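Review form for a predicted model. The reviewer records the input and the model, then writes brief findings.
Reviewer: anonymous (R2)
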Amino acid sequence: MQDGIFVIDSVVHAFDMSTANEADPRYAGPVNDFLGNLLATAPDGYAIDAEAAKRDWKVEETASMLFKESYTDIGIFHHTPIYFYKDGLSGLQKSAEAVEKYPDRFIGSYVAVDPLGEDPLGQLEHGIEAVQGKVMGLKLYPVSYTEGKVVPWQMDDPKVAFPLYERARELGVKNVAIHKSLPLGPAPSGDAFHPRDVEGAASQYPDLTFEIVHGGISFTEETAWLFGRYPNIWINLETVAIFAVLRPRVFAEIFAGLLTVGTEAAIDRILWSTGAMNYHARPQLEAFMNFQMPEDLLEEGVFWPVPQITEEHKRKILGENAARLYGLDIDALKQKIAGDEFSASQAEGLLPAYSTTSLADKVLAGSGGSEPPIIAPRA
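Model under review:
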């Protein structure tokens, strides 16, 4: 636990950023460059060589990074349908491996579907079977890579999207996560990453939950109005939380911006996620625990002031909101992981960043700084 708070990371990946996995280097190459540079510009002790990062990350490494190198308790895998990579970037087989090998730590996975790909309903059913029915939601991206072309689609399209929601609901899948706000490399996508089309989906399917992943990184005001108006729209902080580490003021402006309409009540619909291995979990957790809203941003609310964030709010965001969304019992989760290999490791103190991976010797000194010491166990 992070400062006594049970942490559920709602987006975990194991990317294959290797050249061999690039189906179309025009698009995959620049995305790999961006991801590598992001890892290389992390703070002291967390920066790794950008070129070394462009590799096939293993499930075991992601597990050890989360549960031995940070105080994350539970993770939820997401495989991704970005098919200018051969396996979609984080392949379905890795989600299947994660929930099978670490069932008490990776308690489930989102199943990714390309709605414009071949047999999208079949993709959903196959994905659920692959993760042994441990499906936490449906994961979507607003563009499809089809026959060498990037083709956008809309969340409110009754022919493309609605049949997928209806089949998901029939199969007991009630959470839909859509990647928004953060475009993918130099791929022509129009306004596909704008969140406006989530409105039509949320209003048509009020019994489903729609997560805006990366919500607020761009289109913050439009996202805030959607978030404030629709009780079945949630915000997922994947990548947003990185700003708490690298650009605290930017993080504060995004976070405050998301609450300008819904204010304090909206905090109950924010999910924590680090996107690990996309970025190390530990500095994100620590930066968020230390975060306080700057006083000048508290008056940014539209109808009411933006609330100052409290420990109770952080407890909700870091775990309690996810537990409520997924119907999880935190006490039962604690019991299942008590005494496992990761709990035993955490009890000895956190291990240095990337020390449990094959990139231990690629941690940068100078631009990134020195490797952080093992942290003493928490009381």
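Findings: The two ends are 10 Å apart (CA to CA).
Further findings: The chain is about 35% helix and 10% strand.
Recommendation: see findings above.
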